[in-house]
Structures are given as structure tokens and as C-alpha cells.
Amino acid sequence: MERLHRALLDSRDPDTVDSFFSPEFESHNNPPGFPPGLAGVKQFFAMFGEAFPDAEVTIDDLVAEGDRVAVATTLTGTHQGQVMGVAPTGRRVAVTGIDLLRIEHGKIVEHRGLTDTVGLMRQLAG
């Protein structure tokens, strides 16, 4: 998981998604307006990369059993690009989230997750 976050955030190359996610990937929690599947994942990471170019992800907890992984993370970064309709504020934020993943053949095929978007919006509002 750490390798996934580092690769996606450090490279800023949306095609890095293909190395970690199956072509049959399905997310049950796509943000509004994002396409399904890999296209949505690429769009999401591109948006976050532009909004928080100095983003760092800390893995707070991780549990793996069989083909399932549960991971709690904290993303920290400086708001330097538009995110969810909010223009750049220059504020430093910390956003927590929990992701449940199903893995097949070494790639992520299914995702359910929750991100503290209310907390993010509060931080951006100051």
C-alpha cells in the first residue's frame, strides 16, 4: 500500500494506475462526476496531484487477510490547486480516510472507501 501511494503521488503519471489496478476495477464510492473504472481512478489521482502537489500519505493502520486489505490513511498537503470546486487556499490540510480493497492476481479489483471530505472542507474554509 505504501508503494502504491508513493508511486501514484510521486510520479504524478496517471498511467501508473495500470500497474496497481486491474482492468476490471470497480469502485463502489466514486466521487460525483468521476467516470467508473480505471478512468475514474486516474482522474481522481490527477485531481489530488494538482490540488496537493506536496501530498504525503501516512499509513495509520493496515490489516490484510486473504484477498482483502483494509487501510487507514492520513494525507497531508498544501492546497495549491482546485479541489471539489474550491479554489486554491494555500492552507495545509490533513485528511483521513479508510479504504477496503479486494486483490486478484496482485492488482486491486474492487474498492470501497470513506474520506473525511467534511473535515477537508472545514480546513479549506479556515
Description:
There is one protein chain. The chain is α+β, with helices and mostly antiparallel strands and 126 residues long. It has one domain: Roll (Nuclear Transport Factor 2, Chain: A), CATH 3.10.450.50. Helices cover 30% and strands 40% of the residues. The chain contains 4 helices and 5 strands, in the order H-H-E-H-E-E-E-E-H. It has helices at residues 2-11, 17-20, 37-51, 117-125; strands spanning 21-27, 56-65, 68-78, 92-104, 107-115. Strands 1-5-4-3-2 form a 5-stranded mixed β-sheet. Strand 2 (56-65) and strand 3 form a beta hairpin. It starts with a helix and ends with a helix. The mean pLDDT is 91.
CATH topology: Nuclear Transport Factor 2, Chain: A
The stretches of 5 or more residues where confidence is low (pLDDT under 50) are: none
* Number of strand elements: 5
Instruction: Let me know the average pLDDT.
Output: 91
Task: Specify the overall morphology.
Answer: globular
Written as H for each helix and E for each strand, in order along the chain, the element string is HHEHEEEEH
- Using the coordinates above, name the CATH class: Alpha Beta
Oligomer: single chain
Tell me the span between the first and last alpha carbons: 31 Å
| Count of folded domains | 1
Q: Major sheet: order of its strands?
A: 1-5-4-3-2
Instruction: Specify the biggest β-sheet.
Output: 5 strands, mixed
CATH architecture, by name, is Roll
- Percentage of β-strand residues: 35-45%
Number of helices: 4
- The helix content is 25-40%
Output the structural class.
alpha+beta
